[in-house]
Write a structure and sequence with these properties.
Helix content is about 15%, strand content about 0%. The protein contains seven helices and no strands. This is KRA43 protein.
Length: about 325
Amino acid sequence: IVSCHRVCFCCHRICCHRVCCDRVSCLRVCCDRVCCHRVCCQRVCCHRICYHRICCVRVCCHRVCCHRVCCHRVCCDRVCCHSICCHRVCCHRFCCHRICCHRVCCHRVCCHRVCCDRVCCHSICCHRVCCHRVCCQRICCHRICYHRICCVRVCCHRVCCHRVSCHRVCCHRVCCHRVFCCHRICYHRICCVRVCCHRVCCHRVSCHRVCCHRVCCHRVCCHRICCHRVCCDRVSCLRVCFDRVCCHRVCCQRVCCHRICYHRICCVRVCCHRVCCHRVSCHRVCCHRVSCHRVCCHRICYHRICCQRICCHRIRCHRVCCHRVCCHRVC
């Protein structure tokens, strides 16, 4: 029986509480930031069989999720509220309306109440962003648009134009209209991987991962998750490179984009876009049914690292293939 203390499972920040499953020790990946309150999901996180089926990196999908995680009752195996579901947002207050896993969710896609019927919310449509009332019919919901852009985790809201490919979470709470993510010039100059820098984000900033959940990253490394230009290369990013702790002294461009760095760390959700070399496989940005960008889809890089939700014909990649552990040559 696993003793469930605050520091159990070597997770300094996570602790599976009272009724933790006694069959399997929850790995660090089980719930990175999420504490399995009272009922550690015995069918999802804690069992090996479940663990391989879905990846509970920061989320324990079960009926009684902690306040920071939005895993509803219907959180099925296919829909795991990963680390994105609610980084800091309490799903009880706000997350449920925009980011919660609902019945119609597929792979981490959160199509909420008024999600357009035309939207087949694949793992690409809006991984993390719920197509709420203003599910952009011009980009996300229509097939023609859907094929043209890669809405990995982004639901381009009201005024998103067709020309822009809003990657990841182009607009989490606030869509940087006109200034940031919706213009070509901006988009090409900066990297909207997961969350767009809000209102005052400058064009020079490369917003990797969760560049700014609530804080905009300028030239300084976001206090939480953003590696910037001014970072030095003294520190090697851990596997949770930019997950919750920002690699202040690590430059994204030197960590994510280079082979030597990439092999050393596992960029879980950091996709180096333009500067990324072909040998680096962008994890989550890999489109499910849409051809990935130049970075993700090359065989040479793909074989080395297993994209999370899409695998080539030669590699058998389960969904959890590389959440925090980088599969170099083997799935």
